[in-house]
Write a structure and sequence with these properties.
The structure is a single chain. It is built from 7 helices and 13 strands. Helix 6 packs parallel to helix 7. The longest helix is centred in the middle third of the chain and has 15 residues. The radius of gyration is 19 Å and the shape is globular.
Length: 249
């Protein structure tokens, strides 16, 4: 309510993304009116009064009290504004457990749509991981976290738009497993090239059963077998569900 009073308009819808980080509440606002110097001062005072860790306004950090941090496995990640996270800690833990079960003893893993390392960093405690994500700030955060964590296997990051430029089948050579966690639109282009690869195991995570079914059909047409599907009900007050699945050759 306070943010709306300071920066809202009657004509444009404001959207708030709120993250409960380890170091405090991180708020990102889009759709607010442009923040001039006076408004930025008001927003900074509001951030201080409400004890927010950070406030980002229309893509610009207007107040930073402390860097929002999140832990994945043993690694601490400094979150860029708007970083993708799972909806709940419990849901994240269930998905990580399912992914770990799916890839088993794999020693070289590709993590597609890797975000800020939700799967990359815990898996790097036992396997080499190539993390691929379109957002450069997220990849930089994963790289910094991996370098700052003792005892991890090698983590390589690659900034790449997997919708426009998916990894080709031959780029998966030498890898034991793939983890893929696309947005709600699914990953049709990437899955088509993945279906032509020889990666033994694929751990798929999805927040949209419809696009998952479409992508699963493509993988199965390429020779993969759907071994199991696990549903994770982590979206409170919503009919949406998350799911994890294992495919193998």
């Amino acid at each position: 309510e306070a943010l709306v009073k300071v920066g809202g308009t009657r004509t444009v819808e404001m959207q708030l993304t709120v993250t409960r980080s380890l170091s405090g509440t991180d708020v990102m606002v889009t759709g607010g009116k442009p923040a001039d110097a006076a408004m930025q001062m008001d927003l900074a005072r509001l951030t201080e009064a409400h004890g927010l860790a950070r406030l980002t306004w229309n893509g610009e950090i207007v107040a930073l009290r402390t860097m929002p941090m999140q832990r994945f496995g043993r690694s601490l990640v400094a979150l860029p504004p708007g970083a993708f996270l799972q909806a709940t800690a419990e849901g994240e833990a269930a998905l990580l457990q399912a992914v770990a079960l799916a890839i088993g003893s794999a020693r070289k893993v590709v993590d597609l749509f890797a975000g800020v390392g939700t799967f990359t960093l815990p898996l790097a405690e036992r396997a080499e991981v190539l993390a691929v994500e379109s957002e450069a700030l997220m990849m930089a955060a994963v790289d910094k976290a991996a370098r700052g964590t003792d005892g991890l296997r090698r983590v390589t990051v690659q900034t790449r738009d997997l919708f426009r430029r998916p990894l080709e089948a031959d780029e998966f050579k030498g890898y034991d497993a793939v983890v893929i966690d696309p947005p709600r639109a699914g990953a049709e282009a990437q899955v088509r090239t993945l279906a032509g690869s020889k990666v033994p195991v694929i751990a798929a995570v999805s927040c949209n059963p419809a696009t998952f079914a479409r992508d699963a059909k493509i993988l199965m047409s390429g020779g993969y077998k759907l071994d199991w599907v696990q549903v994770v009900d982590q979206f409170r007050w919503s009919a949406h569900v998350e799911l994890a699945a294992r495919f193998s050759l």
